[in-house]
Specification:
globular, 42% helix, Nucleotidyltransferase, domain 5, 10 helices, 8 strands, alpha+beta
């Protein structure tokens, strides 16, 4: 939660409702974009040397394929992706002062990201040129695995963190928005 100050700075430039409309998330210091903003503000030498911001599974994909990619569910967890357009949000990147070039290419979770390199093959024993699929975020994949794929179906996860997923076609209904941005 070290990015609390950065989250407060974001809140001065964008309303919680607008932030939610872009990202589907409430403002919180726990997301990747705010953490990268913290690094930019507090460790500028590291930010300056950063080529791409990757989540853990995307780093593994990089090591296997030499490709800098992520997919929509993990990109969503950064609070830098526009859910409506399925692209990096220029508005939020500008507000957070994050260079868009530091963001990886966006793919679908079922897309082939690349193929096992000869180096990765030698290190892992995997066959060279084996296709590597992008995959998805743990929460999204868990929700799908429990059958949370039809309108009105909910999924609850209790573990390191606790959360509830609800499948809806209308993420931006006034009641859901108000609930998720903490107005009710």
């Amino acid at each position: 939660m070290r990015a609390t100050k950065q989250t407060q700075q974001i809140a001065k430039q964008i309303s919680p409702q607008r932030f939610y409309e872009i990202t589907g998330h409430r403002l919180s210091p726990s997301y990747g974009g705010q953490k990268l903003m913290w690094i930019k503000d507090n460790e500028p030498h590291i930010y300056a040397k950063t080529y791409k911001m990757l989540n853990a599974k995307d780093f593994i994909i990089l090591k296997l394929t030499n490709q800098f990619v992520t997919e929509y569910s993990d990109a969503s967890s950064t609070c830098l992706m526009d859910l409506n357009k399925l692209c990096w949000s220029d508005e939020l990147l500008n507000i957070m002062g994050i260079d868009k070039q530091k963001m990886p290419k966006l793919l679908k979770s079922t897309d082939i990201t690349g193929y096992i390199t000869n180096t990765a093959s030698e290190l892992t024993g995997l066959c060279p040129n084996t296709p590597v699929v992008c995959g998805g975020g743990d929460g999204v994949c868990a929700a799908v695995g429990t059958g949370c794929i039809k309108e009105g179906i909910a999924h609850s996860s209790i573990g390191t963190s606790s959360w509830i997923s609800i499948t809806t076609k209308n993420l931006f209904s006034p009641k859901i928005k108000a609930l998720l941005i903490g107005l009710i």
